[in-house]
Amino acid sequence: MTARIIDGKAIAAELRTRVADEVARVKRDHELTPGLAVVLVGNDPASEVYVRSKHTQTQAAGMASFEHKLPADVSQDDLLALIARLNRDPLVHGILVQLPLPKSLHTETIINAIDPAKDVDGLHPNNAGRLAGGLAALSPCTPLGCIILTKSVHPSIEGMNAIVVGRSNLVGRPLVQLLLNENATVTIAHSRSRDLPKLVAQADLVYAAVGRPEMVRGDWLKPGATVIDVGINRIPVPGGKPKLVGDVAFQEALNVAGAITPVPGGVGQMTVACLLVNTLRAACAIQGLPAPAA
Ligand SMILES: Nc1nc2c(c(=O)[nH]1)N[C@@H](CN(C=O)c1ccc(C(=O)N[C@@H](CCC(=O)O)C(=O)O)cc1)CN2
């Protein structure tokens, strides 16, 4: 069996089109232009690429994009002052601080300073707590993307066995909550779980978000399982450009899985598209408008 490849690029493009249509509608009917402010501290090359892509895609969707680039040695107080300004700015409906931050800054304090209504990363404890309680919340973008990709294969995942390998605040933990909201049966595992291959073998849906190149092997998988690979690992290639691989051994998994996301071209593509969805949702909620269709 060769697994079906889940085309994250195409699914993200469709989502961006739906967001752009909804943005045009709220502009026309309500004179509302959703605005996203992205804060980048320092000059990590991968973060610079992601922030550029957020800027381009935000503008392409018809929204306002505000970029704030700060030096790596910015003080915590100056960064907090910028966030306070963005919290008050009526043109800004979404605020995202690109992660990781330099070690000199306290990530939790920075995230907690963002107005939860503008927290389009879904990382503020208000949003994380609401999501955990099964309430309406802004949810982190990558897990939202994982759910959309899963539903492109299984429109309902009710009762399916899912395993999430990884317990980060950005992906693993919120993904577990989103899966529970879809009535999946969820196991959360991590690098210290005992007998990971045995746990993975029981799952119909496998989410690999552990940050270890090709850790999940093909022979761990239940035949026909749907595999969503969240990993983005750069592997050095002697004399060449680093190679991008996921947390799943893709070639091995192809022969066992029913469907699988590639890296690149899978989950990563959904992250920015879902950020646009969250920004549109935040803008509508702040204006007191009904939740948009996208
Ligand atoms: N505040 C946040 N910081 C970070 C997040 C986040 O959701 N919020 N996620 C990641 C980085 N990220 C967006 O910020 C991101 C990662 C990957 C992609 C993507 O399109 N990946 C491509 C490959 C691109 C490459 O060559 O690196 C793919 O998988 O096809 C977009 C956004 C950490 N920080």
From TrEMBL:
GO terms for biological process: L-histidine biosynthetic process; methionine biosynthetic process; purine nucleotide biosynthetic process; tetrahydrofolate interconversion. Keywords: Amino-acid biosynthesis, Histidine biosynthesis, Hydrolase, Methionine biosynthesis, Multifunctional enzyme, NADP, One-carbon metabolism, Oxidoreductase, Purine biosynthesis. Pathway: One-carbon metabolism; tetrahydrofolate interconversion. Residues 140-284 form the Tetrahydrofolate dehydrogenase/cyclohydrolase NAD(P)-binding domain. InterPro entries: Aminoacid_DH-like_N_sf, NAD(P)-bd_dom_sf, THF_DH/CycHdrlase, THF_DH/CycHdrlase_cat_dom, THF_DH/CycHdrlase_CS, THF_DH/CycHdrlase_NAD-bd_dom. Residues 6-121 form the Tetrahydrofolate dehydrogenase/cyclohydrolase catalytic domain. The keyword Amino-acid biosynthesis applies. It catalyses: (6R)-5,10-methylene-5,6,7,8-tetrahydrofolate + NADP(+) = (6R)-5,10-methenyltetrahydrofolate + NADPH; (6R)-5,10-methenyltetrahydrofolate + H2O = (6R)-10-formyltetrahydrofolate + H(+). NADP(+) binds at G166, R167, S168, I232. GO terms for molecular function: methenyltetrahydrofolate cyclohydrolase activity; methylenetetrahydrofolate dehydrogenase (NADP+) activity. CDD domains: NAD_bind_m-THF_DH_Cyclohyd. GO terms for cellular component: cytosol. Its EC number is 1.5.1.5, 3.5.4.9. Homodimer. Catalyzes the oxidation of 5,10-methylenetetrahydrofolate to 5,10-methenyltetrahydrofolate and then the hydrolysis of 5,10-methenyltetrahydrofolate to 10-formyltetrahydrofolate. This is Bifunctional protein FolD. It comes from Bradyrhizobium macuxiense. The gene is folD.
